[in-house]
Amino acid sequence: MFRSRSKLPTSSHISSYDTYYQPRALEKHADSILALASVFWSISYYSSPFAIFYLYRKGYLSLSKVVPFSHYAGTLLLLLAGVACLRGIGRWTNPQYRQFITILEATHRNQSVENKRQLANYNFDFRSWPVDFHWEEPSSRKGSRGGPSRRGVALLRPEPLHRGTADTFLNRVKKLPCQITSYLVAHTLGRRMLYPGSVYLLQKALMPVLLQGQARLVEECNGRRAKLLACDGNEIDTMFVDRRGTAEPQGQKLVICCEGNAGFYEVGCVSTPLEAGYSVLGWNHPGFAGSTGVPFPQNEANAMDVVVQFAIHRLGFQPQDIVIYAWSIGGFTATWAAMFQGPVLLIRRTKDEIITTTVPEDIMSNRGNDLLLKLLQFRYPRVMVEEGLRASIRKGKKLLP
Fold this sequence. Notes:
Elements: H1 25-58, H2 63-92, H3 95-109, H4 113-119, E1 133-134, H5 169-194, H6 200-219, E2 224-229, E3 235-241, E4 254-258, H7 271-275, E5 279-283, H8 297-313, E6 322-326, H9 330-338, H10 367-379, H11 386-394
Parallel strand pairs: 1-2, 4-5, 4-6
Antiparallel strand pairs: 2-3, 3-5
């Protein structure tokens, strides 16, 4: 928990570390034990399939072996509960923590400007931060049938069938094993490989860096943190830096930054538009740092929707003054938010060794071709059938000159 720049001591001999909340001995040691237990639990969770297989091969999963183990586990849980109580006692005896709790409870009861200003002086578990913006808050969405429901915003439509094919019951049965396998892989190992930033152990290792980056945005850039509630119930952690009051004209433009699969707004691509003088709105993927949920495609689109609505209806930016800037997999949410039926410009380096799948000289292997083909197939599904796709691929060198 840290205080913002307005609360920092003015004495030059006091380091910035001294301005952080300093827990007393009881709270400090109890919190260290609970943090260590949390890390061990996370390691056990990810290694549980291998551990269960090993225990089964060794014959340790019998009832005679499981019952004593459950006794040990119950004793350990009671000890951890006692440690949590000791941490609570240590916090309650600390006047600084009691002052923080008083401000937090007052903000939950009444989210006035003064209460929010005082609460912004602290950094704490974001789950306790009050919601600043609700997805239904825009008046145009209240009672609207065309807006997003609690199931989510419009995301993808079914892939068009090729000419001469039909979605029969037999075809569905044939696809079922692959669909089940894909679902299991995507919801277990696949999601964590695609979005490693959602893994707890990685977040735990990066936490000091994230806190330092967040402190820099608040103290040096006057950033304002906010919690947005998406239509699926996920809470999205955002940071807004307002440059509209500066002399730089680009401060009237807002850049919404979409981070990569292991990126956080605290240390991500927000630094580029900040250095250029733009107003910036950064947000974390669902399941990243302060944001809740998991980064599945629908959840990502729901999060992007509430971020854009927040920028328009709460921050007061017009759509024509908003620029969406993305890095890596953040391009998914960026293209979803920016999609429209007008002209689209794709810029590709013809000798880009990063996004080719063969040698750099082979333009046909550049992934920009696939992006263009998908765009054409989406806009012209009746024209871009299988024969049309083959013809386009054969002329791939002319797709993106």
